[in-house]
Amino acid sequence: MATPPAASISSHLRAPPPWPPPKSTSQRARVRCGVLAPSGQALEAAAPPRDAEKSPNWPPSSDVNLQIQRLCRSGDLAEALRLLGSDGVDDRSYGAVLQLCSEMRSLEGGKRAHFLVRASGLGVDGMDSVLGQKLVLMYLKCGDLGSARRVFDEMPQVSDVRVWTALMSGYAKAGDLREGVLLFRKMHCCGVRPDAYTISCVLKCIAGLGSIADGEVVHGYLEKLGFGSQCAVGNALMALYSRCGCNEDALRVFEGMPQRDAISWNSVISGCFSNGWHGRAVEHLSEMWFEGLEIDSVTMLSVLPACAELGYELVGRVIHGYSVKTGLLWELESLERGVDENLGSKLVFMYVKCGELGYARKVFDAMSSKSSIHVWNLLMGGYAKVGEFQESLFLFEKMHDSGIAPDEHTVSCLVKCVTSLYSARDGLVVHGYLLKLGFGAQCAVCNAMISFYAKSNMTEDALLVFDGMPHRDVISWNSIISGCTFNGLHSKAIELFVRMWLQGQELDSATLLSVLPACAQLRHWFLGIVVHGYSVKTGLIGETSLANVLLDMYSNCSDWRSTNKIFRNMDQKNVVSWTAIITSYTRAGLFDKVAGLLQEMALEGIRPDTFAITSALHAFAGNESLKEGKSVHAYAIRNGMEKVLPVVNALMEMYAKCGNMEEARLIFDGVMSKDVISWNTLIGGYSRNNLANEAFSLFTEMLLQFRPNAVTMSCILPAAASLSSLERGREMHTYALRRGYLEDDFVANALMDMYVKCGALLLARRLFDRLSSKNLISWTIMVAGYGMHGRGRDAIALFEQMRTSGIMPDAASFSAILYACSHSGLRDEGWRFFDAMCHEHRIEPRLKHYTCMVDLLTNTGNLREAYEFIESMPIEPDSSIWVSLLNGCRIHRDIKLAEEVAERVFELEPENTGYYVLLANIYAEAERWEAVRKLRNKIGGRGLREKSGCSWIEARGRVQVFIAGNRNHPQGERIAEFLDEVARRMQEEGHDPKKRYALMGADDAVNGESLCGHSSKLAVAFGVLNLSEGRPIRVTKNSRVCTHCHEAAKFISKMCSREIILRDSNRFHHFEQGRCSCRGYW
């Protein structure tokens, strides 16, 4: 309907100006009215036409009110507003129009009506309470809280509690909770008594603010007013206490309510869930069910997440079935639209948490709307959690096709899937896609990309992402530190950790778990202690996983005491803890304690897993404890672990180190799928047990199935060294050179050791000088090599050079230098190094060190000093030490001391024939034949058998073995003729070594002269006859060379002008021009 202009309204019918009235009807007044009614035609639309008094159609005042009432009942707001500007309109008509504006949520109409109320003069002396109330309610329902408050403030006195309550409710809905609480205080000061709804409203505001103190005050006030028993008030109180975390108070309110409705039950269930009382939430649902109350969708929305957190899949299915039966699960408009989105999302969450992805997917597919990214993330995350990464990526593609934009959680899940599939290309594509969508700078996305690049061994890209992040959280730091540690960049990981700490970033257990392995690998013991102290200070040490990593760190740093202390103080130990302490004891050489740890582990009811079994077997291998190793083998068989490859390899290592190669080979042959470790273990076992031929045979077999690696080279080279097979050693050197294995420290050291033991000391030194990085083992091998070849001064010079270069010697290094001094007769130098080891380097001497010192003293003729040295040893001497002294007695013809020492030797090893042979030789040299006869009779009664010595030489690619007393060689006649000529020439020149007498042959453990059948002379003769001139004759003997063979080799070297290199069980002898490098120290 057209609205006439304001100029056409007569003066007596025109509504008065807004209150307070302006002094003139200028344009300024019209502008002000325009503010109240934003529409440009507000005034014109509300005013009647100027010629209204002349119009015959304009109704009288009594009819106007009736028409307005009728128009309001019919909902014709525009016509009602037009008539509202007529004369004679009463309060009821204004109220009816305001009520209609409220119902129709017409803010523009309400503002026009408000203007007309003011224009009628009703608001000059203050807004009437009835119209003011309606205006306030109208503005609140139309969402104009500011206008409602202005009208409220204009009212001279508001005694109706409903107005106060409505305004407070408006503030609560608008989120201005503090203003709602202040309004309640103002109402209380004005003396207006609140009702139950007012109390409920203010409690809602207080709950939103989280002000438990104000809530308790209001609680006391409402109890005083007698509202405590009302259901609505109780519901509001429960919501308040639940929101503030006081769930026990909320439960007390709930239990004290005389009447409860569905809202009460929903409130208490929701409160229990929000405060983590998931079990109580499910219990209250059960009580609600048995009381016969109707369960609505609100109840289910609270209970289903509780079932998810508890893993109550059965309860969740019951609720699912109830929702289907009652129709709550479906959209109200039509079943064809599918499952309600909110309830469906909760069901998907419950099924995903309970691991039932099939049911979750069915609910998801039946949902009417999938516009929420949350439900997509739930299902994608569920698939990723169980390892179905391809399905998760397929779901992401479907979401992308549906036009739903991903969020940070979607991206994080997406990158996790790509990372787990180890598809670098897909990861790069995803990274570009995320950058295109604008997620590249978000923290969660960057964290996921750092994790992806780290797992894909693209650490530089991970560092680029990390450095480009505008903001980093603790997960960012943990991801990059963990990634550097995972990819072996331990120094970088520690550097990042220090940066993180200095920047004040909070450290959590994941941070410590990431940096401690780096400390362990680099043996940063001090930093590890600092991190340990931080974990104690913050209480993180109580986490079992962190304690386990600390155990490993201290174990790697050889601090087994700290490892043991942490282990004993742990409240909860799992199988990882026990494995870590077993590994620590094994690394520390405390092999004898491992068996006790296994017993403790069994008493605490923890079953060893494959890692614990493997660690224990390594310990028993180190201690050569065959009995304990067999018991662990039996346990592995009983528990079905005997076919697990790491256990199989550890079993082979244990049997090999215990000398039982037959059992090791049986295990090896019983494994269907062997890896390179299996082959290396058995090859190394053969080499260790001096079964060099078996080692080379297995190595040849391995070449047909596996490609040898650097470890294989370090295992087979000792076999060549034990045979003194220089030709085979050079073949291995060539193979390692072609494969690029010389960069490996173990291979380089094994090659040096091979050349040393094959007598090629010059080649060993050349290889040593070419090493780019020399470790302690490299120096020790070279020092021991000089000592083995009788070059003690060179060994000392190299040892001092090692210390000058900053490498600190260990027990093995001192053993090598003492050995060198012993075989060169350097008595004073030997004592100096022994004192430095004890006092300067704080190394406790072991049996091998004492043996070297006894050898040194006996070789230099200090027999009595050697005897006193043995008596003063803090540890019990073994037979080898006494035999060293006994051999010195033979060299220096001290019969009395020899008899005394022999008694000690026979007590320790009464069944060893070599010791009796050595004493018999001492008697024979002194021509005490009666003593020789008595000793012969004594041993003959024991039934001991002779162990023949042997020697071998390599010529034309074949190894020729000569056994003591056996002359059945194809070239036996030639060799005999040559040796007869040597004997004749020696006799002519006055070289007639005194004949030595012996009872029987000695094995390689004996340091005396036993009956060897002169096998070394046979081998030397073969070399002279078959090797070209100018080529050194290299002979190896399995026992110490006798004096006769030693003198014969010296004479042959001069007679034939040949270099002879003889290696016996004790050292090398270089014969050249009638001289030997040992100079008598052998």
TrEMBL record:
Keyword presence, Transit peptide: yes
Occurrences of domain DYW (ranges): 990-1082
InterPro entries recorded: DYW_dom, E_motif, PPR_At4g14850-like_plant, PPR_rpt, TPR-like_helical_dom_sf
One GO CC term on file: chloroplast
UniProt-listed GO biological process terms: chloroplast RNA modification; cotyledon vascular tissue pattern formation; leaf vascular tissue pattern formation; phloem or xylem histogenesis
Example GO molecular function: zinc ion binding
PPR repeats: 160-194, 261-295, 372-406, 473-507, 574-608, 675-705, 775-809
Keywords: Repeat, Transit peptide
Residue numbers spanned by region Disordered: 1-63
Pfam family, one: PPR_2
Superkingdom of source: Eukaryota
Descriptive protein name: DYW domain-containing protein
